[in-house]
Structure formats: structure tokens, C-alpha cells
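Open question from group meeting: does this chain pack into something compact, or does most of it stay loose? Before anyone orders reagents, we agreed to write out a predicted structure and look at it together. Recording both the input and the output here so the notebook holds the full record.
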Amino acid sequence: MISVAFKEWAVICSALAAGKQSLILRKGGIAEEGGAFRPEHSEFLLYPTYFHEHRASVKPEFYDRFDVAEADKPADGTICLTHFVRVESVARITNLETALALNTLHAWTPEVVKQRFAYRAPGLFVLAVRVFRLAESAVVIERPEFAGCKTWVKLDSPLDTTGAQPVLSDEDFARFLQCEFAHARAGL
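C-alpha cells returned:
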């Protein structure tokens, strides 16, 4: 059972759900407590948002995920929760070159990474996550307190994660952690 959701661009949620990325880069929103993101939860639901994302903010190879996310956009005033993640690793990057070295592991363009990295105080959090598809998706009413530039949203009722299936096989996720992410992490 999980009752906390993580607000993220719908295109990034789509890439995570499709197994195209297993990494979340996070700066935090202006409404974050203390003005900074904190990786407070080891498991959370993905809450797709459409407010700040733009097609030009993702690399061309992720345009299809952008289109899927737009096609899956729920009715106004609702949120469709289909996946949750388990955080496997958290790091804080304070060097821009290190952040840019993760380029092959996520959908954002280098320009977006640079903008996010430089916003307020330099740095980004990097979360390596294992993504799971819920056995049953849930449509939740979007309440006013969910609005704004914040990361974490507490749902009224927890969602059951029983029967959730990983989007990547154990072998593929282990390969990501041990090869792709380990290589990129060498600079962390």
C-alpha cells in the first residue's frame, strides 16, 4: 500500500513506465518546504503532470513518449495513477559535468539539465528507481492542495500494490544498475 505520490512530467512518467529510463533527476519546486527537494520516500506512485513540460524539453528519441503521455492525459480534475517506483539509489550531484554525463540515461535535453541544475543553488538529486506497473490503475480526484510546484502529494487513501509487475526484468534492471548506471555513477 502506498499513499504518497511524486509529481513528475508526464513524458518522464511515460519513459519510466515504458522502461526507457530508470533514473529521475530532481531539483524540486518553488513550493517545496524550505525551497529544496528532499528524497523522503523509498517508494511512491508516479503522478504525471502536464504543466511545465514541452516537447522541445526532451530529446527527439523521446518524442514518442511525449505523444503517448499527451494521448493518455486524463480528464481535467483527475489523475491516473498506473505505476509506482522503488528507489534503489540516491545521490546529490553538485558538478554540472557529472549531471551532463548522465545524458544517455534520461529524456531531458542537456539544456533542461543545465537549467534545472543552475536553478537557485547549483545541484540535482539523482534517483535510480525500479518501476512497477500497478495491477489496477486508479483515477483520483485532483484536489486543490495537490496544485503547485511541489514534489510530494499525500493521497486520501493508499493504493494497493499487490500484483504490481516490474517494467524491466530482474536481469535488465540489474544490467542497468551494474553497467549503465554504474558507469555513469563513476563521476558521482
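Observations to bring back to the group:
The longest strand covers residues 124-141.
The first helix runs from residue 10 to 17.
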